[in-house]
User: Fold these one by one.
Assistant:
Number 1:
Amino acid sequence: MATTVGPAQNTPRTTLAKPGLAPPAVIPPALEIWAPDPPTWGQRMIPKGIRSAMADLGLWQEPRPLKPSYHLIQVIEVLTRYGWCQSFDFSPTGRMCIRGAQTFLESTGHVTAIDRGKAVNYLQTQLARQGVKMRFWEWNDLSHNTFRGVEATISAASDMARKNGD
């Protein structure tokens, strides 16, 4: 702590030394697309056809589906924000596995079924490069896996997709 004299009042004022960088308390608007909020109860109750009509009238903004490389990065962000788990697509506490995060993103319109399938192919190709011969959701559940390992594999798959133009 340091004591200084304020210029206007000529009174002592105590200031704290600046702490190191801390993560923001709120997700910056530019990053919100990467880890979307779950749809509200009301949004889940509106059928897709009505949502599309509302979007055409400018009353609703549908999420923009992302390419496979961006979808894989978004999967990492969802797992970071809501938590990663094993053995469940969606755990009772709201955590998700890789497949659960993809399902969540597809259900909220952040990826199409076709681009999700492409992302899965890139993920499976990356696992094959690592010598893994099982489906990605089975690999996710292996007891020796950590979130950092899962994150690195998904990131490598995203890099591969980006290099291929997806």
Note: Strands lie at 2-5, 12-15.
Number 2:
Amino acid sequence: MRLEAIPVRLGEWRQDAREAVRDTVPIAMGYVPLGATYGLVLVNAGLAWYWATLSSLVIFAGAMQFLSVALLASGAPLAEVATTALLVNLRHIFYGLSFPLRRIEGPLRRLYGVFALTDETYSVVTARTGEELTGRRIHLIQVFSHGWWVLGSTLGAAASTALPGQVHGIEFALTALFVVLAMEQLYKGGNARSTGYGAVAAAVAWLAAPGQFLSVALGVLLAAAVGQWWLASRKPTEQEGGF
């Protein structure tokens, strides 16, 4: 690279960085308080505060990080932890099909792009369908989002060390979040079937294998989703055949 091109490249990076920070402000409003809750839950489970920072740096899986604390604290076998992680994060395979990863330059940045793909960064990036985001800006959106989550986790874990005792009930925060999201989807209409699938999956898991509740419930829910897709895919064929 010629020396005269360096100021131009730095100016482009600064511009993309400013825009990426602005893009991630809504993400920060959710990541910082939720990450702080994760830090509190982790310390309440008996782990040292710095594990919140390390796990957020290395795992960065949001809901799965909350679940991992409960699974590890209960002594769950590694196979159950791995199966749960696969089922919880299976949706990211479909995210990757429409995420503009090809715009990100460099194998290391692309590898990080796969690692740092979350629900929120996917929404922010793909929502700008009419705006041609540069690879740098996409990369920085993911970096800053990751940073917000690490910041929240660290603040929550550090703050918990100053509390006089354990904070009871804070582990319900993630459950409450998903309940609110489910209610919001119901209010919007058209999602009652998915909610019904979730209720049936929870009931089956609770009755059949309460000790493996999460794995069984996710398995039943995945089977229901596959079954619905299969039935929907057969309808045009049946109509063409005169049924």
Note: The mean pLDDT is 79.
Number 3:
Amino acid sequence: MQLSALQNHLDELLEVARLRDYCPNGLQVEGREEVRRVLCGVTASQELLDAAVAGDYDAVLVHHGYFWRGEDGRITGMRKRRLSTLLKNDISLLAYHLPLDVHPQLGNNAQLAAIMGWVGEGRFAEQDLGWIGRPETEDMSASEIAATIAVRLGREPLLVGDGERKVKRIAWCTGGAQGYFEQAVQAGADLYVSGEISEQTTHVARESGVPYIAAGHHATERYGPMAMAIYLSDNLGLQATFLDLPNPV
């Protein structure tokens, strides 16, 4: 498949033009024109790039790419090594940040819900990034949901607030979306789940009465890139593989 055709297809599929983001979405580093093999992962780390070189991949597709707004733009050190690896080996880098969070089937929020058995019934927060709906079982407490997360994601989450609260309405947004907690409370959630936690999050949970679960940034955002690998293989005839490189955050 031609790289340009792949880029256009994914940009349209993930509705890149619809979303405001703080990084460029789509093709970030241009490699060879023909794409047969794609390595998918959460972050375009050096370890993932080295795996792409070793596996003779033509392109890398990730959720966390490069060129974030406000970062130092000088090509030195770690940034030089990463870009040099891509350019020397003629490997393309495609990255989809918010578009891969919000897609209704392939996105991180949709995929996390599928893993957890949550039913999305509405959206909240800016650009409808957050999801709200029903938990797998309505009579579960926040502590019981945290225990289920630990089993299904293979990572012990951090629960703050009232663990005994029964959860009829659950809200979630993967990754570093702890900043949407108050909006989740306003939307009627009995529990909010995201990836990371900040100091002030604990106080919001205690004072609002709505518990919060930090389930891991990486752990909650593995499933979008994993779904993309399956999509590329099943729908575009590419040899696509997801590589999970563990991250404790």
Note: The first strand starts at residue 26 and ends at 29.
Number 4:
Amino acid sequence: MMLEKLVERREQLEKDLKDFIRKRDELNEESKKLAEKRNELNAQVKELLNKVRELKKSRDELNSKAKELRAERSELHKKIDALYKDLDKLRRNIDRGGRPLGEIEKEIRRLEFKQQTAVLTIEKERQLVERIAKLKRELEERKTQLEKHEEFKKLIAEIKKLKEEVRSLTEQIKGYQEQADGVHEQIVELLKNVDETRKKADEYHAKAVEARKEADRYHAEIIKTRKDIKDLDKIIKALKAKQSKSKEQREKEELIRKAKEIYEMFKRGEKLETEDILLLQRAGLI
């Protein structure tokens, strides 16, 4: 009974072992696939970050060009301001009254900058636009009056030329700035994508690690079950050996008993068969 139960237990352990091996292998395969997906996403992150670095370099180059042009434009403004000073000196000699043209020009620039950058109500903006238009009319009227003078005309022409250069630089600066802003938007979008992809990669990594841990737990069960089977094999072998020895002993005792009976028959002079004589020999009585 004990031996049968142990054999049944061993058979159950063999079934458990097969299940553990199957589950471990499935989990290892799952962990492998999850790790591969994680690696793919990490590769995407790396590629995206390389694009971000390239775009940052491009954006910085565009901003650098815009900065250089702003410096050039600033120098042109200084030249224009200097020419306006010369113009005002000449004007004072020609026109003994009125506001300096350079001041009008500076005020126009200041008001235009305010219009572009300040947050104004509709009424305030309307007043500002009207003020700028009035100053421009005043500036042009004054110039028209003074342009009859040859030297004045020459200074005005030089100022116009420099202003055209300023306008051209401003357009270029605007172009570079718009390009830089567009590139920056791409960078922001890519970095958002990087964060999302990296988050997914981390999730796959966590799942891969968990699957690996679960596989390791089944592997530990496999090792333990194999040891249990090995230990059971030793016990079963010992029990079988013991049972076999007991059977042999019983057979030997039965042989001696029969041999003694035959030997008594022999002593009484009864006729013995060949099988009886052979049995006596096996028992060691003849």
Note: The first helix runs from residue 2 to 94.
